[in-house]
Amino acid sequence: MVIISLAWSCINTPEFSDIPEIKYNSVFFKKGALTDSLLVSINFQDGDGDLGLDPAYDIGEPYHAIWYFKKSDNTFLTYADRNTPSFDTLPPYNFPYFCYNYSIENSDTFYIQQNTNHYNIFLNFYVKKNGEFKLYDWLLANPPECGESYNGRFPLLNLSDKARPLEGKLTYKVTGAGFEVIFKRDTLKLEIQIQDRALNRSNIVESQEFVLKDITIN
User: Fold this and answer.
1) pLDDT recorded at residue 1
2) 3-state DSSP assignment of residue 57
3) Can you give the pLDDT at residue 4?
4) What does DSSP assign to residue 128?
5) Closest by CA position to 193, among listed 58, 55, 20
6) Are residues 209 and 191 in contact, defined by beta-carbon separation less than 8 angstroms?
7) pTM over cut 0.70
8) DSSP 144-190
9) From edge to edge, which strands make up the β-sheet containing 108-114?
10) What is the per-residue pLDDT for 15?
11) Which residue blocks in 48-164 are alpha helix, DSSP H?
12) Measured between alpha carbons, how far is residue 35 from residues 30, 48, 86, 128 in Å?
């Protein structure tokens, strides 16, 4: 589950690029009765204010979650088609491919690809091992079970029908059970990026290095 809290302001004179720009602000860890939370904050600027997605309307292309594929006969590509020469290079139905390349619907297994444009905030976790930071892939971290990424969607920031510059602070609340169990005293680092409605991606920012116990708040 992800929740977005926002603080933002309007600027009278356009001063920013239409490509969003972000700066790292802070990260805190909060323990809960059932789930724990990471509160990741960034500062943002955007020249035309086209930030955020409407959960009710922004579900079609280009913001849909999954790409399906059709064959020449206009039927959808499925795992069964892997038995034919034209599609024998489709990945097998095993870990990790069934985590992101197949979807079981109505007793059929469709070949799919994930659409990253479904999200507008991207969050990567890195764990320090032997002096080097390695990406922690939540999707593949617990084989043969599939996990979920912590990419998410934040709502519309500009509710007017006109483009306008925006700046402010965005706090991304990431909730889950087991952060302390997984990372214990590991040194972590986060990588954050956002995307506007025109699919322009911001710069990538990194958090400071941290251990969960050192950023815990009540």
Assistant:
1) 45
2) coil
3) 59
4) E
5) 20
6) no
7) yes
8) TS------B----S--SSS---EEEEEEEEEEES-HHHHHTT--EEE
9) 66-68, 108-114, 102-105
10) 82
11) 97-100
12) 9, 37, 47, 24
Q: Which amino acid is at 129?
A: K
Query: What whole-number distance in Å separates Cα of residue 63 and Cα of residue 153?
Result: 10
pLDDT of amino acid 154: 94
Using alpha carbons, list the distances in angstroms from residue 142 to 62, 67, 84, 145, 197: 30, 25, 32, 6, 33
Residue 191 · residue 123 · CB < 8 Å? yes
CA-to-CA distance for 105 and 40, rounded, in angstroms? 35
Amino acid sitting at position 154: F
Q: How far is 85 from 92, CA to CA, in rounded Å?
A: 14
Identify the CA nearest to 52 among candidates 152, 162, 192: 152
78 token code pair: 């499925």
**62 vs 18, 53, 67, CA distance in Å?**
19, 11, 10
Instruction: Report CA-CA distances (Å) from 198 to 3, 48, 165.
Output: 22, 10, 15
Residue with tokens 């998410």: 152
- pLDDT of 32 reads 87
Of 113, 129, 154, nearest in space to 2 by CA: 154
Q: Which tokens in the block code for residue 170?
A: 């965005």
Q: Extract the residue ranges of the chain whose pLDDT is less than 70.
A: 1-14
> What b-and-e string marks burial along 136-155, b requiring 16 or more CB atoms within 10 Å of the CB?
bebeeeeeeeeeebbbbbbe
